[in-house]
UniProtKB/TrEMBL annotation, chains A, B:
<dbReference type="GO" id="GO:0008270">
    <property type="term" value="F:zinc ion binding"/>
</dbReference>
<feature type="binding site">
    <location>
        <position position="35"/>
    </location>
    <ligand>
        <name>Zn(2+)</name>
    </ligand>
</feature>
<dbReference type="InterPro" id="IPR036874">
    <property type="entry name" value="Carbonic_anhydrase_sf"/>
</dbReference>
<keyword id="KW-0862">Zinc</keyword>
<keyword id="KW-0479">Metal-binding</keyword>
<comment type="similarity">
    <text>Belongs to the beta-class carbonic anhydrase family.</text>
</comment>
<comment type="function">
    <text>Catalyzes the reversible hydration of carbon dioxide to form bicarbonate.</text>
</comment>
<protein>
    <recommendedName>
        <fullName>carbonic anhydrase</fullName>
        <ecNumber>4.2.1.1</ecNumber>
    </recommendedName>
</protein>
<feature type="binding site">
    <location>
        <position position="88"/>
    </location>
    <ligand>
        <name>Zn(2+)</name>
    </ligand>
</feature>
<dbReference type="GO" id="GO:0004089">
    <property type="term" value="F:carbonate dehydratase activity"/>
</dbReference>
<feature type="binding site">
    <location>
        <position position="37"/>
    </location>
    <ligand>
        <name>Zn(2+)</name>
    </ligand>
</feature>
<dbReference type="Pfam" id="PF00484">
    <property type="entry name" value="Pro_CA"/>
</dbReference>
<dbReference type="InterPro" id="IPR001765">
    <property type="entry name" value="Carbonic_anhydrase"/>
</dbReference>
<feature type="binding site">
    <location>
        <position position="91"/>
    </location>
    <ligand>
        <name>Zn(2+)</name>
    </ligand>
</feature>
Length: 162, 162
């Protein structure tokens, strides 16, 4: 049995007590952008329930062009007005450089990826970078309520980056 | 009080019973790629706990270049071996076309985005598209265990796309 099959078994259990459908637009009008890290349970850490906020996640929680695309759809079509950015301590993105990662892939496959890995030396600096990218985007209409945080994987607590 | 402040209050409560830190690599060696939709609680729907799987999410759950970047980091640096793709019923991405969305932004801002919105006409077709993009990527070393599903927002149940 693969892990995927185990997840499907858990899903069958979840569906037994599931009550839907809820409306498509997020009820709390928030979009969260967070790192993909396994230790960051966004619903748990923010006390969320189904139907409340959009959750966008990638390696690092960086504001990439794909995150801008997702936020544009979130704000323009589905009514979100606040953005919450979450990086975290002990992030994998602190353990390598973009050049090293792209070179390792080139050494392995013969092909250098056309994208940067988006590694960063500390999470606070990259939260500021992410806020700056949101603020600079011409495609997002709502940028007054954009706040960034670092999640501590030891304590489960969010610390705001000012 | 903003919604963000409410989420911070919920986080303080979460941290009270939080026990960490867990190891950085996902214990179950899986990366999930899912839509950002508020009704899709990935941890709940798959019975997950902190520390188990990477969760990557964007508008549509589409396999964009940024998702390939995240999966490459997930597999090459953090040991994941299975990929689970999750789209869902009643998706916002079914309600517009790429051309319409880009034109609406151009009409509003004067600037046409350089990216496609990645809208799609039905979730099953786009799950197949996403699997095909994963399989075609030269940057992902583990592509034998890639499965795609549609989450039903009415029942909470995952249906596999074959």
């Amino acid at each position: 049995m693969s892990v995927t099959d185990e997840l499907l078994a858990a899903n069958a259990e979840y569906a037994e007590t599931f009550s839907g459908p809820l409306p498509m637009p997020p009820a709390r009008h928030v979009a969260v952008v967070a790192c993909m890290d396994a230790r960051l349970n966004v619903y748990g850490a923010l006390g969320l329930h189904e139907g409340e906020v959009h959750v966008i996640r990638n390696a690092g929680g960086v504001v990439s062009e794909d995150v801008i695309r997702s936020l544009a759809i979130s704000q323009r079509l589905l009514g979100t007005r606040e953005i919450v950015l979450i990086h975290h301590t002990d992030c994998g993105m602190l353990t390598f450089t973009d050049d090293e990662f792209r070179q390792a892939i080139q050494d392995d496959t013969g092909i250098k990826p056309p994208w940067a890995a988006e590694a960063f030396p500390d999470p606070e600096t990259d939260v500021r970078q992410s806020i700056a990218r949101v603020k600079a985007s011409p495609f997002l209409p709502y940028k007054d309520a954009v706040r960034g945080f670092v999640f501590d994987v030891a304590t489960g607590r969010l610390a705001e980056v000012s």
